[in-house]
Specification:
The complex is a heterodimer. By secondary structure, chain A is an alpha/beta fold. Chain A is 30% helix and 17% strand. Chain A has a 21-stranded mixed beta sheet, covered by helices on one side. Chain A starts with 6 loop residues before the first helix and ends in a 16-residue tail after the last strand. Chain B is built from eight helices and five strands, in the order ααααββαββαβαα. The chains are: A alpha/beta, B alpha+beta.
């Protein structure tokens, strides 16, 4: 029992601690540590915007300078969450504008944010520096214009994969001539053409600009002109490469790229034709990150680029790379840490590429640092999975999507149970796992038993019975997020292991066999959780007890029932006659 | 494999009341579930060369063509932007081959059909069939075209393997047991076929194949407008 640490000393120590996980631990030590920590935390992360109220967060962290919020569940990315479900930014912005006017950074993922919200941000935070919107929707380019026009110290404006109502390209012209602080600009998801001369002037007067991601409407001429004005870029997303090859354009581009000696990351490359690829050769040796996942270049045209990128750590590509291209990657990209291979055809019947499990095996064998994998493939085998796990026990993120649901090992016709068993047994540091292919309950017995550190687990079209869920919920000690679709389990495992849900951030289930009655029972058993039934088929008053519900979303929360539920979302707190609450959703 | 696991369920140590009847058409008590349909099982997806494809006898929808992986909602799991890019790429390729005009693409953008999965994809549900599918509206040129695709999708008109061929559907002329309806921008459910095709594709949000009995409450658009006018101008 020594003397308590003076708070000034503790504050100084805490100034070295950035990670929120560490800070959360610090705040649990004792009341005075909690107080000191909360008064000094600058970057706040809220993984589920409904887990806590904006007022609580604002009050707890008065010195907050950066807020990150996540809204809709992950499966919203695949259109499984109906429109109007929720995830509104307004209640947060409203509170922060009043109580935390010194806020500098807002990062939102899968949230709904309106032009009014954006205008409020622009008007309320005098020191505002950074806006990052990922997979958000609900706003137009007018809202972006408001940010551009008003935030005098803006450094970061990134719109990534957002659904924006595009009213034209003039939003860019709202950046005042006095704005010279821009560090990062990403408008790759917008459609409309911006005025090139305005963009050129903006780039010219932004000496700190490091990251520029253009939209498809920017032409090759535009790209070349911009590169000449910003050779200091470290991160570039090109616009569209025109369909016709012009030797003069090629040589101008090559020269412009050659001047970009600090370029580390390259993306965009829509419609790039093979003839233009050599223009990129000069930057390849310096690249650590390459996103070719929108480039429809086939083999062997990709080889030239791949074999020059010997420092590559992150590669995103389409299955057009084929097993052959992955061989080149295996040979040359020894520093590779993350590989993502996306499908080039959503329709199984039209798939015509030679990408098999062998491609991934080859890379896993040779790239010692490979720890993050996302792989879409038509087929897979247990043997491949076993080999991958043997060579790469250091894998932290393994997401395999065998495109055809229920596809067995294509050689033995067995389920992929043993393959995934090898993965979870061998890769002891696995944090994220997505499974696919034909899987019986056995696979989940292995996962439950061995995937101790897995925090996020995604499952589709798998399992045989309640046993599957029983295995997962009675094992998987580190599980925080579980998302399941189209699996044949019902009520019993869920009800039996209800307590586990209190240790998790969230559980999503859609198209399974959980009944409405079970949801009601769960809601009563778990008062600290929101049990949402999301079902567009039945109006709430007439939903039968034993009918399976379309979707369930269960999450822990300190904020109680949410007040902005649409008609098709039901929780036990809701009075079905009253319907949607009257929270003003601006 | 599936047969084995059905035996295993009996051996599980779950309480008796939780025992499930496995197989297609899972019943949880009451007809409500039968109306809702079923989740997809392996029999729905033809594995090339798989022995499972051989036992296709107990499909509860005789002659239904199995959904292709791109017809299942949210599958394969790639984000909207990426899906759009793939769809557009295919459309552009067809344009280059002179197969169809692509200028229609620019009409129906994300902001009008914000609820569709990828430009032009709308969800289609049929009463009694729990499988949600999607169809690319703008890959079609007319109502007949669309009806044909839907009939193939849900009733396996093309290359059906069942012994008993399903009756020709005639989704559009009201002569069958089913009727095609759609939800428009305002959230109203309408009968498909009344408005000009080009107007339809800009206002459709999703489709539903309804039993004729249930559809009797629906009025075609022009009738609804007449009713509104009548209500506003009582004589």
């Amino acid at each position: 029992m020594g003397l308590p640490l003076p708070s000034k000393v503790l504050e100084h120590i805490l100034s070295f601690i950035d990670s929120n996980e560490d800070r959360n631990s610090v705040s649990l030590v004792c009341k005075s540590w909690f107080d000191t920590e909360r008064r000094t935390r600058k970057r706040v992360f809220v993984g589920n915007c409904y887990s806590v109220s904006p007022v609580t967060v604002s009050r707890r962290f008065p010195k907050m300078r950066s807020l990150t919020l996540k809204g809709k569940p992950h499966f919203a990315d695949y259109n499984l969450v109906p429109d109007g479900w929720g995830g509104y930014a307004w209640p947060w912005i409203e509170v922060l504008a009043k109580k935390n006017p010194l806020l500098e950074e807002i990062r939102l993922k899968r949230m709904v944010i309106t032009d009014e919200c954006l205008e409020m941000i622009a008007a309320s935070f005098k020191e505002f520096k950074a806006l990052v919107l990922v997979s958000c929707e609900g706003f137009t380019t007018d809202g972006i214009a408001a940010i551009a026009a008003t935030c005098r110290n803006l450094e970061v404006l990134e719109l990534r994969e957002c659904i924006v109502e595009d009213l034209g390209g003039d939003w860019l012209s709202y950046f005042p001539e006095s704005l010279t602080s821009l560090v990062s600009l990403d408008f790759s998801c917008l459609d409309s053409e911006v005025k090139l001369s305005d963009l050129e002037r903006l780039v010219s007067r932004s000496p700190n600009l490091k990251s520029l991601k253009l939209n498809r409407a920017v032409t090759l001429e535009g790209l070349e002109s911009l590169l000449r004005r910003a050779p200091q870029l470290t991160d570039l997303g090109t616009g569209s490469f025109s369909a016709e090859f012009e030797p003069e354009m090629f040589s101008k581009l090559s020269k412009a790229f050659a001047e970009c000696k600090q370029l580390k990351s390259l993306s965009g490359l829509w419609d790039v034709i093979p003839e233009y690829l050599p223009a990129l050769y000069s930057v390849c040796p310096g690249l650590t990150s390459l996103n070719l996942s929108y480039a429809t270049v086939r083999m062997p045209d990709l080889v030239g680029i791949l074999r020059r990128c010997w420092k590559l750590q992150k590669l995103w590509v389409m299955d057009l790379i084929e097993d052959k291209g992955l061989q080149t990657v295996a040979m040359r990209c020894k520093d590779l840490r993350e590989l993502r291979v996306f499908p080039s055809e959503p329709d199984l019947d039209d798939v015509s590429v030679a990408l098999t499990e062998e491609g991934l095996v080859t890379v896993s064998r040779s790239c010692r640092k490979l720890e993050s994998i996302l792989y879409f493939c038509v087929q897979f085998t247990n043997a491949a999975l076993v080999t991958i796990s043997r060579y790469r026990p250091n894998i932290k993120c393994f997401r395999l999507c065998v495109i055809e649901p229920f596809a067995p090992d294509h050689i033995t016709r067995e389920p992929l149970d043993e393959g995934f068993r090898a993965i979870v047994e061998g890769c002891k540091d696995l944090r994220r796992l997505s499974v696919s292919g034909l899987l019986t309950d056995k696979a989940f017995e292995y996962i439950g038993k061995h995937a101790k550190k897995v925090r996020m687990l995604s499952i589709a079209f798998a399992g045989d019975s309640d046993l599957m869920l029983h295995h997962l919920l009675s094992g998987c000690e580190g599980l925080k997020k579980l998302e399941i679709r189209d699996c044949p389990f019902g009520d019993s495992a869920l009800l039996e292991h209800a307590a586990k849900l209190e240790t998790m951030r969230s559980l999503w289930m859609s198209s399974c066999f959980v009944s409405f009655g079970a949801c009601k029972v769960l809601s009563q058993k778990l008062p600290k959780l929101n049990v949402e039934v999301i079902d567009e088929m039945y109006p709430p008053e007439s939903r039968p007890e034993n009918s399976p519900v379309e979707r369930i979303y269960i999450y822990r929360t300190l904020a109680g029932p949410r007040l902005d539920m649409p008609e098709f979302v039901w929780t036990i707190h809701k009075n079905p006659e009253v319907g949607v609450s009257n929270l003003a959703i601006k | 494999m599936r047969g084995e696991s059905e035996e295993e369920v009996g051996k599980s140590n779950l309480p008796v009341e939780s025992e499930l009847e496995l197989g297609l058409g899972l019943s949880l008590g009451g007809s409500a579930w039968r109306e809702r349909g079923r989740i997809l099982t392996a029999k729905d997806f033809p594995c090339v060369g798989s022995k499972r494809a051989a036992d296709s006898s107990s499909s509860s929808h005789q002659g239904a063509s199995p959904p292709r992986s791109s017809q299942v909602v949210g599958w394969p799991p790639i984000g909207l932007h990426r899906m759009n890019s793939l769809v557009n790429k295919a459309a552009r390729a067809e344009e280059e081959e002179g197969k169809k005009k692509v200028d229609e693409l620019k009409d129906v953008t994300m902001k009008v059909n914000g609820k569709v999965e990828g430009l032009g994809f709308v969800k289609v549900n049929m009463d009694g069939d729990g499988i949600g599918r999607k169809v690319d509206i703008r890959a079609h040129s007319s109502y007949e075209n669309l009806a044909q695709t839907l009939e193939e999708m849900f009733f396996g008109m093309k290359g059906t393997t069942s012994m008993e061929k399903a009756k020709p559907l005639r989704l559009l002329d009201g002569s069958s047991d089913f009727v095609l309806t759609y939800e428009d921008k305002e959230g109203d459910w309408m009968l498909v076929g009344d408005v000009p095709w080009r107007m339809f594709i800009t206002s459709v949000k999703r489709l539903r194949i309804m039993g004729t009995a249930e559809a009797n409450g629906l009025a075609p658009r022009h009738q609804k407008q007449k009713e509104r006018q009548r209500n506003n101008n009582p004589v």
